[in-house]
Design goal:
The complex is a heterodimer of chains A (122) and B (284). With 122 residues, chain A is mostly helical. Helices cover 83% and strands 0% of the residues of chain A. In chain B, 58% of the residues lie in helices and 6% in strands. The two termini of chain B are 37 Å apart. A 5-stranded antiparallel β-sheet of chain B has the order 4-3-2-1-5.
Chain lengths: 122, 284
């Protein structure tokens, strides 16, 4: 049996040669960006600790921010979520973000508590 | 690629029934839902890793990525993080070839899809192979951790883990909490005496002990990179099957290459997870 609902949206995703050129340009830009960020991260990781060990804490936060930047580009451009309707974008991202932020908060909070108790009663 | 998704529609039409309010096909939406649940699994694993790291018992230190991962195949010497940076680069590039395959599919360019999808499969296979080498090196070990009779920790300059004879003239070890951070070096007979009187020698890694740090470290390394590696392996198999279907012209007859896009979503997701594993396992 032919599934007409599947065919409809799938057929709509096509684009012309000129649009393709523009999209390929964007892909090239994101590729260069991801490569530059990765090279920068590795350079920081290898050299920074020896240069200025006291500022390592800030380097860690730089890593986390840069990772989120990379993740945003991968999801929005490579996975085309930026081209979808806003409602499906929200359905996918919002529940995940809320849940994982809560999980991280509670896990890091509790683990620091466990660490303090181990220190106290060792 | 936008197509129907970029059409401006009033909410009455969008949510009025008879169409998908998301303007995506059933298959693509289900792939997204699967990826959300898989992302929760990886999120849970990395959170557990964070829990273990933050709650570590006092007196123990968590190993630093650039001190543990500093070897390259066929080369001697120290190249901190170079190998894993190369692996990351391979995975990013194979993600790019995948998105180019999807783009070619949107233009109904069968030859383009075959070319880019083939390169994606090659990149994925390279990544899985690299991970196998990394695991084998991690399990095999490099400097071995020696617990001396007086409770101090030492690391060997040349680990005799291939069963070679120890030459006292060239035997040396460094004393300190980590190989890189060690300050004192002992040579020759003196080192050998300390080595023979040691209470424990740990070389490489297994599920109960490892030379790098607490046992949890190796356990999380095996589980998280192993689980990710299994995802990459599945991705390579899925891409290979889709590639064969493209070559046989299945999607061209169907009139659209959405299957390449769906396999692509999974493949990009694998790259996305690696970005986080790379940060939290090797960098932070």
């Amino acid at each position: 049996m032919e599934r007409d609902d599947v065919i409809e949206y799938s057929l709509d995703a096509g684009h012309s040669e000129e649009e393709g050129k523009k999209i390929r340009k964007k892909i090239l830009f994101v590729t260069l960006l991801l490569t530059v960020i990765t090279v920068f991260e590795v350079t920081l990781g290898v050299f920074w600790r020896n240069w200025m060990p006291e500022s390592w804490h800030w380097v860690k936060w730089t890593f986390i921010v840069l990772t989120l930047v990379k993740a945003t580009y991968i999801v929005m451009t490579f996975m085309h979520l930026g081209d979808e309707r806003r409602n499906i974008r929200s359905v996918i991202l919002m529940p995940y973000a809320l849940f994982i932020m809560y999980l991280l908060f509670i896990a890091i909070w509790e683990s620091n508590y466990v660490n303090r108790m181990l220190e106290l009663f060792q | 690629m936008s197509g129907d998704a970029s059409k401006a529609l009033s909410n009455d039409v969008l949510w009025g029934g008879g169409r998908s309010p998301f303007s995506v096909s059933y298959g693509k939406m289900m792939m997204w839902f699967f990826l959300v649940s898989d992302a929760l699994t990886f999120g849970g694993l990395l959170t557990a890793y964070g829990f273990a790291r933050h709650s570590l018992a006092p007196g123990m230190t968590w190993p630093v990525g650039e001190e543990v991962f500093r070897a390259l195949p066929w080369l001697h010497g120290s190249y901190p993080l170079m190998y894993v940076a190369l692996m990351t680069f391979i995975l990013i590039i194979s993600s790019v070839t995948m998105v180019l395959a999807v783009e070619a599919g949107h233009r109904m360019d069968k030859k383009g899809v075959i070319k880019w999808l083939f390169l994606t499969v090659i990149g994925g296979a390279f990544f899985v192979g690299s991970q196998a080498w990394e695991w084998s090196h991690f399990i095999h070990g490099s400097h071995a951790r020696v617990t001396l009779a007086d409770g101090r920790t030492a690391f060997l300059e040349h680990n005799p883990h291939h069963g070679e004879e120890i030459d006292p003239a060239h035997f040396a070890m460094v004393i300190g909490d980590s190989y890189v951070g060690a300050t004192e070096t002992v040579h020759g007979e003196e080192a050998l005496k300390l080595y023979n009187g040691a209470t424990a020698v740990v070389s490489g890694a297994n599920m109960t002990e490892n030379e790098y740090g607490p046992p949890e470290y190796a356990n999380f390394f095996f589980f998280i990179t192993g689980f990710h590696g299994f995802h990459v392996f599945s991705g390579v198999v899925i891409n290979l099957i889709v590639l064969m279907m493209v070559v046989r012209g299945v999607f061209h007859r169907r009139g659209h290459y959405e299957m390449v896009e769906k396999a692509g979503l999974y493949w990009h997701f694998v790259d996305l997870v690696w970005v986080f594993v790379f940060t939290f396992f090797y960098l932070v």
